Amino acid sequence: MKVIALNGSPRKKGNTACSLNTVLAELEKAGIETELIQVGKEKIQGCKACYACVQNQDQCCAINDDPVNEWIQKIKSADGILLGSPVHFSGVAGTMKSFLDRAFFVSSVNGNLFRQKVGAAVAAVRRSGGLPTLNSLNHYITYSEMIMPCSNYWNVAHGHAPGEMVQDKEGEQIMAVLGQNMAWLMKTLEFAKDEIPAPEPVPKVMTNFIR
Question: Over the stretch 73-121, which tens digit does the pLDDT of each residue have?
């Protein structure tokens, strides 16, 4: 089994990375392979609403001059996904938001590629805005019918300078418990998949409020 973690911070060794790595360490202790992808350092533009991914049905975004399509396939082949973002004005960092909008839209219109994977999210914040950011990240996970493990509090860690997150002992524990629960959930699903068939996907009903 493998988990792909996506760091939405431009800092490779910032508090978002520390939070993600704390979760990944627990997964690795449980024998689960991990890979951390640095999203925040790339130049990723937002979705153009061109609908080429709907028409082509090739599991690709029409914008092909950045790593988004490569990352979509990495997520598709993984068993679990971990999203992490710093807090920018009480929200997800811009580069991460652009990536998530494109990747998850491609998934949703190409057969829901991420459906029933195990997914979790974490946020790193100096002071306030952690919960709105975490909620925004969780929206991608729940929309995709992914299965979400929990921790013993909301998945937010505090710190300002890079690495300060480790001084937030409760935040550090939250990340460790999340990793333990994520590993347990992944192994439980793997053990049960042959005995308990997963629900079949259903065509999405779209209700527009303006006719």
Answer: 999 999 999 999 999 999 999 999 999 999 999 999 999 999 999 999 9
Tell the residue number behind the tokens 């805005």, with chain if given: 129
- In CATH terms, 2-192 corresponds, of 3.40.50.1100, 3.20.20.150, 1.20.120.140, 3.40.50.360, to 3.40.50.360
Confidence of residue 211 (pLDDT cuts 50, 70, 90): confident
Under a CB-based contact definition with an 8 Å cutoff, are residues 23 and 81 in contact?
no
